[in-house]
Every structure is written in C-alpha cells, then in structure tokens.
Amino acid sequence: MADPSPFPLPFVPHHKSPESPGENPVLFAFRGRELLVTSELALPSVTDIDAQGLEAVRTQYLGHLDGRHCYSAELPGDAATAEGFRFADLRTLFGSLDEMMHALAGRAVQIVEWDRTHQFCGVCAEPTELSETDRSRSCPKCKIPTYPRLAPAMIVAVEKDNQILLARSPHFPAGIMSVLAGFVEPGESAEEAVIREVHEETSIVVKDVEYFASQAWPFPNSLMLGFRATYDAGEIAIDGEEIVEAGWFAADAMPTAFPGNVSISQWLIRDFLTRNGQGE
Between the CA of residue 279 and those of 126, 179, 251, 260, 269, what are the distances in Å? Predict the structure, then answer.
C-alpha cells in the first residue's frame, strides 16, 4: 500500500498536547480577546512572555504549523505588558499579522474563550474535564460534552440585471454598504437562511441560490457561508432598524466604501465587479 498523502494544509489541528513543545513554538496569548504582540505587530516568543513574568491561567494546544507546535494561552485580566509589547484587538491586526498567523489567532481566541467559559457544567455546576479523544469538555456526573461554539451564518450577493443588492446596517459608518448576511436558524439549511434573511431584510424574493465560499470569522465565533443568488420578485422595503439603507447598484456605479479586503463580503463584491468588467 502506498504511503498516505501528507496533510494538504500547512496547519494540522489537534487537541492533544505533545510531550515537548519542541523548538520555537508558536504562542497566541490573550488578555480577554486582545492578543499580545510586539510593538512591530509580531507574535512574541515564549521566552518574551516568560521574561515579562506573565503566567497563563490556562493553555491549550492547537496543532502544528509547518512542524512548529502551536498553543493558545489565557492571561489574567489585569496582565500588563513590558515596553515593546502591547495587547491588540484582532480586528486591528488585519493586514499587519501574516495571513496564516491571523487565521490561527482567530482559531485560538475562540478556543481560549470556550475553555474559559466551560470550566463547569451548565446543568449541575460540576467541574468539567478535558476529553482525551477530541476538542471537548465533559461533565463527569452528567456526561454532557461541550464543544467550542460555532455559529453558522450566511452571506449573499443578490444580483438582478447586472446589478448587485447592497445594504447598510446601522452599525456601519455612513457610506459603507455591503451584501446581506444573517445567522442560520436551528433546523434550517444555509440556502433556506439565504432566502429567509433576504426577504426579512429587504422584502426581495431570490432564487438559484449557489454556494460561493466560506470564511471563519472569529467575531465572536461565526462560520460565514457565502452564496450568490438571483432576484426573483419584489420591491425593496426595509424596516429602518436592522437595515437603514438598501439599493441595486451597477458595477460602474458602486458606492465608494466597502468592508475590508479580508472579509468574504469583499470577496463577493469583487467577484461581481470582475464578472461585470470592473475588476482590478
């Protein structure tokens, strides 16, 4: 029998910590949801953290990246940094951290938060225990396992006659428009969520829902499922609360501001522009 193929991605996730961290391990240390970085916006080494006298409340093994073991750590809420280091929100580090490291930091902060908030059983308050077989904690009394929280959400580019439907949430700064998004409800498929959310937010009916791509989005723990869909019926009507502005835009008459380049909303918009002769 031939040797199995190597894992096709540079990062291999795993829950069980190795006996030794090996050389030059990667460490994502968080105070709350803020990541410890150097003043040059790089990850500190384990030696850097030890030198500052920072002691982790808990640590978690993430897996290995190109042979380097990766860990996350929860620091105390009052942890202070030495000169040359600071805590930064992950959103502010888009484009500064290496893309792979930022993605792993997003994975790490979700695991840290899950581990912190599931130390006790939600039914009987018994201390939970880490599983030896997967990424979970379970109650020795109730036998109820808990896993890192993951909230699936759909995001969709709706098109009509070479126009795209864009909207503005009240949380967006004035002028910034994006495609529609919303969480998937229990018992609902992602495609059903697309149809429901678009109609709820704009009164538009869509058809031909087609998968586009997905993106892990750790703000706080979403998995964004991207789709394209085609207009079927209806006129735009918004409630002025969830959506404060919406309209159809041609590729050569788009709003001037969009979400950042790293988000799947931008990918969907760029895909529309490229297919309509306005790609970069």
Answer: 56, 17, 9, 16, 10
